Amino acid sequence: MGGPASDLASVLPQEALRLEVGGRALVLRPPVPGDIGWVVHRHAALYAAEYGWDWTFEALVAQVASEFILKYNPQRERCWIAELDGRIVGSTFVVEKSAEIAKLRLVYVEPDARGFGISRCMLEAALKFAVAAGYQRMMLWTNRNLAAARGLYASAGFTLTLEEPYRGFGHDLVGETWERALP
């Protein structure tokens, strides 16, 4: 990654990032009306289908999404909607946890779009933005049973800093906090 000044020009404007993954067109773009509701819907439906999580997970996702909209700070926060060949296939958010810490939120990729590197592209965009916005660290919260996500975060330099068993979304789970320093 370049220095904050060079990254600021390319990442802070709410412009779409146009990439290629597996020979297909990937666009990471800012949300438009209806997208945030779509993110909530798809998170809830996918996690119910894949992990059996109940509708309390949908409430958490809706709360995170609502807070993003209501407290949005364009200098410090971002949402990318991933489109593969013109179809919405994922999302990622960067929100302000504190002046020094960015928090990665609501990362997902549709099942039929997995394996193209979309999650990695979204994570790289989020990390670049966080550096350009002046954050010193990035953190995220996930669950132990989300093996692919945990592998992605570990490969990007995040380390597990906290594990907490809890009852949520209709299951006994282990929540995990992951963090990494930013250059």
Question: Summarize this, please?
Answer:
The protein is built from 5 helices and 8 strands; from the N terminus they run H-E-E-H-H-E-E-E-H-E-H-E-E.
SSE string: HEEHHEEEHEHEE
Percent helix: 25-40%
Mean pLDDT: 91
- CATH C-level class is Alpha Beta
Distance between the termini: 8 Å
CATH superfamily: Gcn5-related N-acetyltransferase (GNAT)
Query: Could you please say which CATH topology applies here?
Result: Aminopeptidase
Overall body shape:
globular
The tally of structural domains comes to 1
Chain-wise SSE layout:
Elements: H1 4-11, E1 17-21, E2 24-29, H2 35-51, H3 55-71, E3 78-84, E4 87-96, E5 101-109, H4 118-132, E6 137-143, H5 147-155, E7 159-168, E8 171-181
Parallel strand pairs: 5-6
Antiparallel strand pairs: 1-2, 2-3, 3-4, 4-5, 6-8, 7-8
Helix pairs in contact: 1-4, 2-3
Describe this structure in words.
- With 183 residues, the chain is an alpha+beta fold.
- It has a single domain (4-136), classed as Aminopeptidase.
- The protein is built from 5 helices and 8 strands, in the order αββααβββαβαββ.
- It has helices at residues 4-11, 35-51, 55-71, 118-132, 147-155, and strands at 17-21, 24-29, 78-84, 87-96, 101-109, 137-143, 159-168, 171-181.
- A hairpin with a 2-residue loop joins strand 3 (78-84) and strand 4.
- The chain is globular.
